[in-house]
């Protein structure tokens, strides 16, 4: 068994917010396991984190597959004898009005954004309960706290993540486990360009988003880690009113 102080898993860690969280964990001397379905980018990110002077490895995982997530979490626990952080962060975006989304679209986004989080929690939480410590952070979104025009399916999945996370937060406290929900609003990552299922002109959505003031992933990750330190139930850096104002500006002229 390796001699290591702490270990953390970040799903969706190859890019964007997950990658920035990895950097924050490295600063704390945590061994970071980048878990992502993008093998090429995952290896690149783990190498970047090692260049910062820390320990990082890559594990290829599709979070929609419960067995893969379980194997990841049990594998890390078996190797290090502990699990300090579990970031269930992998997610996808979809743009389109509710009735325009096909059943296949709905199933896909629920699989990644909701089941991906549930599988991560179901694997990590019992281990953390047993060891009596650990921090779980599930990435939802400001779109999980209020209306998010043009992203009904995405918003529905993120509301689910807020609900399951905030419920678990209060159950977990008694076992020394911290469970938090990260609710970023507009963070400058590739997610806006990679959003699936466009029933409307995606470029208009992206153009509107880019006009807004985007937070850097590094800034958001620093806030996220600080929130976890305080055992905050919700980490929501932008006032909800401002988030809603921005979201409603995404509405006009989309068709
Ligand atoms: P990103 O596209 O940069 O990163 C997402 C990562 O998740 C990618 O590396 C991708 O390969 C991975 N991924 C996707 N599906 C996966 C799967 N099935 N299994 C494993 N890995 C998978 O996007 P990001 O902005 O960093 O998003 C991270 C999280 O933050 C997501 O849950 C997203 O919904 C949430 N979020 C982002 C913003 C924002 O403004 N960027 C706002 C609110 C919420």
TrEMBL record:
Entry superkingdom: Bacteria
MF GO annotations: diacetyl reductase ((S)-acetoin forming) (NAD+) activity
Classification via InterPro entries: NAD(P)-bd_dom_sf, Sc_DH/Rdtase_CS, SDR_fam
Enzyme class: oxidoreductase
Keywords noted in UniProt: Oxidoreductase
Record-listed E.C. numbers: 1.1.1.304
Family: Belongs to the short-chain dehydrogenases/reductases (SDR) family.
Name of the protein in its database record: Diacetyl reductase [(S)-acetoin forming]
Species name: Paenibacillus auburnensis
Gene: budC
């Amino acid at each position: 068994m390796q001699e290591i102080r702490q270990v953390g898993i970040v799903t969706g860690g190859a890019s964007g917010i997950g990658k920035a969280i990895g950097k924050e964990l490295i600063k704390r001397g945590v061994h970071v396991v980048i878990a992502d379905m993008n093998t090429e980018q995952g290896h690149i990110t783990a190498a970047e984190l090692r260049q910062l002077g820390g320990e990082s490895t890559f594990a290829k995982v599709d979070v929609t597959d419960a067995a893969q997530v379980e194997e990841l979490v049990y594998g890390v626990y078996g190797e290090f004898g502990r699990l300090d952080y579990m970031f269930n962060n992998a997610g996808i975006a979809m743009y389109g009005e509710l009735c325009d989304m096909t059943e296949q679209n709905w199933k896909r986004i629920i699989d990644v954004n909701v089941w991906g989080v549930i599988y991560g929690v179901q694997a990590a939480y019992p281990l953390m309960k047993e060891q009596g410590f650990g921090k779980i952070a599930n990435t939802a979104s400001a779109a999980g706290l209020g209306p998010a025009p043009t992203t009904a399916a995405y918003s529905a999945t993120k509301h689910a993540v807020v609900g399951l996370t905030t419920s678990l937060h209060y159950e977990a406290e008694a076992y020394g486990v911290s469970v938090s929900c990260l609710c970023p609003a507009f963070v400058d990552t590739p997610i806006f360009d990679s959003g699936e299922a466009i029933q409307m002109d995606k470029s208009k959505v992206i153009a509107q988003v880019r006009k807004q003031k985007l937070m850097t992933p590094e800034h958001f990750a620093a806030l996220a880690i600080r929130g976890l330190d305080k055992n905050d139930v919700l980490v929501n850096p932008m006032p909800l009113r401002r988030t809603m104002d921005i979201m409603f500006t995404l509405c006009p002229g989309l068709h």
